[in-house]
Amino acid sequence: MRPYDIILKKRNGETLNKEEIEYMVMGYVNKDIPDYQMSAFLMAIFFKHLNNEERAILTEIMAKSGDMLDLSKIEGKKVDKHSTGGVGDKTTLVVAPIVASLGVPVAKMSGRALGHTGGTIDKLESIPGFKTSLTLDEFFENVNKYKIAVVGQTANLAPADKKIYALRDATATVDEVSLIASSIMSKKLAGGADAFVLDVKVGSGAFMKDIDSARELANAMVGIAKSHNKEAVAVLTNMDEPLGFFAGNSLEVLEAIETLKGNGDKKFVELCLTLSAWMCYLAGKDSYEKCYKLAYDSLNNGDALNKFKEFIIAQGGNPDVVQKPKDILPISNNFVEFKANKDGYISKINTEKVGVACNYLGAGRVKKEDKIDHSVGLEFLKKIGDKVSKGETIVKLYISENSDVESALNLLNDAYTIGDSDVQKLDIILDIVK
């Protein structure tokens, strides 16, 4: 078997078998196949794509290239939630305690911020004392005792994907549905959950910019899950504007706590309840409609807030953050304002630019080694469809001495479009793929 023949076969649009895909993937991981041949292989896939069977094979090979977590020590059916990334996406901080409060185990390994999207682990580390690293035994014990644990991805999950993704990033082969779906689902399968709820973002702040490509990705990921005898539901959600009122680590924890107290943004609450209901449904709790009602009740009767406090205590965090978050969380007291330059209506937001603006303040990272500032971020006072007057504040920027305020303001100026006529406000839930 030669890499040349496999590259040629895929370049010609033929279907690869398991032995051929495994030869290329593991040959590259083991350094038997050089970058230039793997690059050619990825480019052939980019233009000719993979069919459903090839996607499932590639996913399995990458998943099994490292640790495969066994969650059998955790009681009950384990359902994982995954978001494809967005701006202001703090849903795990609300969804996890809702679901756990209903007796469904949440055993979650989350990532850190990279690029214009935030990371759940960075947000949790805004809470003084909170530990995002637990031993596997501690992880299992917390989930069994409290029904919830959220930790960083410390296990050696899907190393083949990590190495291949770095090459994709350098060779303009990132945005191909088969490769995206296989990359995401290889880590999900290695994580050991029984079922998956996939939050697929759509719009200017998302990886998939339009509904058709997002639906294609959702179908691909659900298909991969089913081919490995796992249940999955994909929820297509709008990312043509930031999610909720805040972006930035401490600020998003603050918003999550306020949401758990019943003071959340209406669209953000709808998203959290929808994702929670699907997680409970896949866990076998009840019908989707009844699960939605259970999630709604948990959010509104204080059960989810109490579970969040229990979760914070269990992982070493300061529980006072629940009652007085503004006193406990590191939030900057220094701010500047981005203001409207004319009268009109917010008609469009380039959400990716908003996310990058947040990074300029220090809230994110370009490279994994970069340090972040938990105290900085953005507060969104106006959304699409809102009326503004000249000089009125659209975004409040929480800044530090290291923030590049000028670059952030310039990006916000590019990101926001103010039109003369009213526009329709955006729905948050766009479609469901099962």
TrEMBL record:
<dbReference type="InterPro" id="IPR018090">
    <property type="entry name" value="Pyrmidine_PPas_bac/euk"/>
</dbReference>
<dbReference type="InterPro" id="IPR035902">
    <property type="entry name" value="Nuc_phospho_transferase"/>
</dbReference>
<dbReference type="InterPro" id="IPR036566">
    <property type="entry name" value="PYNP-like_C_sf"/>
</dbReference>
<dbReference type="GO" id="GO:0009032">
    <property type="term" value="F:thymidine phosphorylase activity"/>
</dbReference>
<comment type="subunit">
    <text>Homodimer.</text>
</comment>
<dbReference type="Pfam" id="PF02885">
    <property type="entry name" value="Glycos_trans_3N"/>
</dbReference>
<dbReference type="InterPro" id="IPR036320">
    <property type="entry name" value="Glycosyl_Trfase_fam3_N_dom_sf"/>
</dbReference>
<dbReference type="InterPro" id="IPR017872">
    <property type="entry name" value="Pyrmidine_PPase_CS"/>
</dbReference>
<dbReference type="InterPro" id="IPR017459">
    <property type="entry name" value="Glycosyl_Trfase_fam3_N_dom"/>
</dbReference>
<keyword id="KW-0328">Glycosyltransferase</keyword>
<dbReference type="Pfam" id="PF00591">
    <property type="entry name" value="Glycos_transf_3"/>
</dbReference>
<dbReference type="InterPro" id="IPR013102">
    <property type="entry name" value="PYNP_C"/>
</dbReference>
<feature type="domain" description="Pyrimidine nucleoside phosphorylase C-terminal">
    <location>
        <begin position="345"/>
        <end position="419"/>
    </location>
</feature>
<protein>
    <submittedName>
        <fullName>Thymidine phosphorylase</fullName>
        <ecNumber>2.4.2.4</ecNumber>
    </submittedName>
</protein>
<keyword id="KW-0808">Transferase</keyword>
<dbReference type="InterPro" id="IPR000053">
    <property type="entry name" value="Thymidine/pyrmidine_PPase"/>
</dbReference>
<dbReference type="InterPro" id="IPR000312">
    <property type="entry name" value="Glycosyl_Trfase_fam3"/>
</dbReference>
<comment type="similarity">
    <text>Belongs to the thymidine/pyrimidine-nucleoside phosphorylase family.</text>
</comment>
<dbReference type="Pfam" id="PF07831">
    <property type="entry name" value="PYNP_C"/>
</dbReference>
